[in-house]
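Batch manifest, entry 17 of 40.
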Amino acid sequence: MSRLDAAHRNRLPAHAFAWPERRELPIYDRSHIKPAASRLSMMVHNGTVGPSLAVKIHGRIVRAGRRFGIHVGPMHHGRHHHRSGRLLHRR
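Output type: structure tokens
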């Protein structure tokens, strides 16, 4: 993934970002899809992004991934549950 400088980031259209309101999580090329998904997971874990907004942003990342032929897995919320619903471990 190449690093975006401020000038390049400012020239990108809003739809080039998974979170266009804040111009965060660029998804304009294939090298940015997986890092955007990872960063979103960290943002959810840190509490920067709430669950409902995270679902919306994750959907944008998944759709961008499809355009580039990249599979983006389901979003994880930092807690892992057994099929019984019991929490396996806490982060």
